Amino acid sequence: MSQHLVAPSLLAADFTQLAAEMALVNRSQADWLHFDVMDGRFVPNISFGFPIMEAVQKLCQKPLDVHLMILEPEKYISAFRDAGAAVITVHYEACVHLHRTIQEIKASGAKAGVALNPHTPIELLDDILEDVDLILLMSVNPGFGGQKFIYRTIPKIRRLKDRLIERNLSPLIEIDGGVGLQNAEELLKAGANVLVAGNSVFGAKDPEATIAQLKAIGEEVYKF
Ligand SMILES: O=C(CO)[C@H](O)[C@H](O)COP(=O)(O)O
Ligand SMILES: [Fe+2]
Asked: What's the pLDDT at 220?
């Protein structure tokens, strides 16, 4: 059995065929649906918000993994929870009072995640590690799908994994940006346990088969 999770990213889906895309995700072995919220301020792009999330929530049977690339995310936590978020991840770089925001996410009933931009060192999370359910490492600069994977993410995952082992903690390590069949094995071996995949899934000839392959790679990794 595979021990890692695969989360296709809605950002890369065909919005003219939203119901069909969500039916595909439902049929697939995907564990979560990744939902990217961008505000045009924290990142130089605007994606989608509550009305789309409410529609997606009705169509999608998988838990919604909400990645907030917005300033002042604390203002919207209960609204995202009400709209159906199972996991809410906020950026370290966007939170003035991260500890408080993480507690508010947990109090809402959602799992709480913290995300780091590619240049933000994992050491800055030392005093919040105990409190989070998930750590999202961006492997591209946030704001757009379809970008090239930043290779330095691999040693960063290893460093984070070592830190967590030292501290006897086990939040999920999620990798987001440029993830696909070409690097999934290396990511899992380094210590990742949630793979977000946008273009590599929705841009594939057979997205369902690609999700199955992303899950199967894990089975190989975990055989040893
Ligand atoms: O947070 C994101 C971008 O900021 C997306 O989740 C990410 O880009 C996924 O898309 P792809 O797999 O195509 O890189
Ligand atoms: Fe994302």
From this structure: 65
Q: Indicate the Cα dihedral angle 92, 98, 99, 103, nearest 10°.
A: -100
DSSP-derived 3-state class of residue 224:
coil
Q: pLDDT tens for residues 64-119?
A: 999 999 999 999 999 999 999 999 999 999 999 999 999 999 999 999 999 999 99
Residues sharing a CB contact under 8 Å with residue 31, sequence separation 6 or more, in sequence order: 5, 6, 7, 62, 63, 194
CA of 138 to the centre of ligand 2 (A): 8
Note the ipTM here: 0.98
Domains of the chain, start order = 5-223 (3.20.20.70)
Helix (H) or strand (E) holding 101: helix 98-108
Options 39, 65, 133, 176, the catalytic residue: 176
Predicted TM-score of the model (pTM): 0.97
Give the pLDDT of residue 221: 64
Q: Return d(Cα 86, Cα 196) in angstroms, integer.
A: 15
Residue 104, token pair as written in the block: 């508010």
Q: Cα(176) to centroid of ligand 1, in Å?
A: 6
Characterize 174-210 residue by residue with b for buried, 16 or more Cβ atoms within 10 angstroms of its Cβ, and e for exposed: bbbbbbbeebbebbbebbbbbbbbbbbbbbbeebbeb
Split at pLDDT 50, 70, 90, the class of 3 is: confident
Closest atom of ligand 1 to 179 CA is: 12
